[in-house]
Amino acid sequence: VEYFDYYINVKRSTAAKESVKKWSSVRQKIIAFQKSRRKVILLKEVNEQFRIDFEDFCKKKEKLSANYFERVLSFIKTICKHAGQNNIDISPQLHGLRAKKEAVHKIYLTREEIELLHNSTMPNADLENSKDWLVISCNTAQRISDFMNFKKSDMVDIVDGSNRIQAIKITQQKTGKLLEIPLFKMVREILDKRGGEFPEAISDQRYNTNIKKICQLVGIDEVVFGSKMDKKTKRLVTGNFPKYELISSHVGRRSFASCQYGHLPNTHIMAYTGHSTEKQLLAYIGKPQAEVSKLSIEKLMSNGWI
Fold this sequence. Notes:
Elements: H1 2-11, H2 17-37, H3 48-60, H4 66-85, H5 111-118, H6 125-140, H7 144-147, E1 155-160, E2 163-171, E3 178-182, H8 185-193, H9 204-217, E4 223-229, E5 236-242, H10 251-260, H11 266-273, H12 278-285, H13 289-302
Antiparallel strand pairs: 1-2, 2-3, 4-5
Helix pairs in contact: 1-2, 5-6, 6-9, 6-10
């Protein structure tokens, strides 16, 4: 825990706020684990046995999913590796620590569903406001922490030869990356409808509640396989549910990447999403290597190479 504090202080000035928040959250989980064990955990004790005990604690006491624990373990390894670079003793088992991940069904809105939302009218201003944010998120690929802060003053013009295109210029909160995102037709139509202004910013919780209602209202109710939070147990449950029940604030970002995959070069999609590598992008949208290879063959055939 002491080294967590040191690491956060060292990285605070250059790291994104979201990263510092996550590190602090992991730190609190270690403190809770120490209290349950009545023992201070040392850096050199982050070994295979620690992984087993800590994983058991996080899943039973903290109610973490397997995939969330995998990310927590990754953060802990990052801290310990940093300590090792500073000549502090760490476990020789550290680099081999792995946590099992569970397959996650990637929920996204299709192009047809996004158009259905865009062309619909909600029964009240609150839902109309949230619906417009949902369509904007599907056309800009940004997280709620970013798109909910879009403002008219962030608009810029991008000049490409004789073309002048409107864009929104932002610095992503999570990554700190500076992006210029051209405004797609649906976004421009929403801004025109609202006199050039973006919708009213609302809380994450209200937005998540509203967009489920909105998708249900327009008939996005196909039964699909996925996971959702059980309100009673506070744990994820997996099964077949109406699609609108699985919609959350992250759906816009994944919808953009999934809908544009195969239409835009992956490097262009990454310029919108902010992913650093193609591997990250493909894992994010859940594209297996076989599908990537098939798409490559189709493009090679269309270009006359095969």
